[in-house]
Design a protein that fits this description.
By secondary structure, the chain is α/β, with parallel strands linked by helices. The protein has helices at about 5-20, 20-30, 30-45, 60-90, 100-105, 110-120, 130-140, 185-190, 200-210, 230-235, 280-290, and strands at about 50-55, 55-60, 95-100, 125-130, 145-150, 160-170, 195, 220-225, 240, 255-260, 265-275, 295-300, 305-309. The longest helix is centred in the first third of the chain and has 28 residues, at about 60-90.
């Protein structure tokens, strides 16, 4: 059986609601023959009589009465769908799927997401975390609408908007207060090196930094990224992390931070499909993510990482 025609269903409902084919025609701005044709077409499609005429009035048959109950639910869903699409068209209610790394989500996005929610409360945000490669693949496949990831991104189907370049820093145990003001690869390689168990972009960059100085880094320990600071603080080695991942606060394990020589930076970019339409809700989210360009993070002389707007 073919699927129900909503116009035919609406015609039957109006005939039975008003009790008249002519009244239904006036209500729907159609001719009476057009209404009669739609009712007859739906009855033939269902193989049932839906409307019966008694005198000058139209009444529902038992099948017609049951169909009206379904039609009322269907009409509510149709109205809701049209209303949702209208609000999406006008930049109102919409869902935007964001992808980023768990570190970026924890360190950079909470204030941004809070402001976005306050400014655009009708935009529903769905945040997914993963590696840069996973997020870029999901954006390319339109599983995620927009991503905030570390560069490089090789997929040519994606638009890449560089947001910021943040310094990476040497992270040393708290006993190393007399460590050089700048840490080069040879000096840092003297420590047992702690790397990320998941082989993130951050530690790929760190390994390449050592190799550029003709030093092949050898990890003495590989742990989950969020455990690195605690492991270093316990005096078990040293590592290289992005500056925002070691933003100092009262609950953080104490470590010594030093700039790298030569400097090493991690680039963050907003990515989306190049053919993705500029829907209002998506643009609200994109603008908010690009606003991270205004966030400044610096390393003070005392080795504390701070925000500077």
């Amino acid at each position: 059986m073919r699927r129900l025609n909503l116009d035919q269903l609406h015609a039957v409902v109006e005939v039975l609601r008003l009790g008249s084919f002519s009244a239904a025609a006036r209500s729907l701005n159609l001719t009476q023959p057009a209404i009669s044709f739609q009712v007859r077409e739906l009855e033939e499609r269902l193989g049932l009589t839906l409307v019966e005429r008694l005198g000058k009035r139209a009444y529902p048959t038992p099948a017609g009465a049951e169909l009206i109950e379904h039609a009322q639910r269907i009409n509510r869903e149709v109205d809701d769908a049209r209303d949702t699409m209208r609000r999406r068209r006008e930049g109102g209610l919409a869902r935007v799927r964001i992808g980023t790394g768990i570190l970026i989500l924890n360190a950079l996005l909470p204030p941004l997401l809070r402001r976005l929610r306050q400014k655009h409360p009708s935009v529903e945000l769905v945040v997914t975390t993963g590696t840069a490669d996973e997020i870029s693949a999901h954006v390319a496949a339109n599983i995620i609408d927009i991503g905030l990831v570390s560069l490089p991104i090789a997929d040519r189907s994606l638009t890449v908007m560089v947001v910021r370049e943040d310094p990476m820093v040497a992270v040393l145990p708290p006993s190393e207060r007399r460590a050089p003001a700048l840490m080069n690869a040879a000096t840092l390689a003297r420590y047992p090196l702690i790397f990320d168990l998941g082989r993130t972009r951050i530690h790929d960059l760190a390994r390449e930094w050592f190799r550029s100085a003709s030093i092949e880094p050898r990890a003495t320990m590989a742990v989950d990224h969020f455990a690195i600071r605690n492991i270093v603080s316990a005096g078990l080695g040293a590592s290289i992390l992005t500056i925002e991942s070691v933003m100092s606060d009262a609950s953080s394990a104490p470590v010594i931070l030093r700039p790298l020589d030569p400097p090493l930076t991690r680039s963050l970019a907003v990515i989306r499909r190049s053919d993705k339409p500029d829907e209002p809700a998506l643009m609200h989210v994109q603008d908010a993510l690009l606003g991270l360009r205004n966030l400044r993070i610096a390393l003070r002389k005392d080795g504390v990482a701070v925000h500077r707007s």
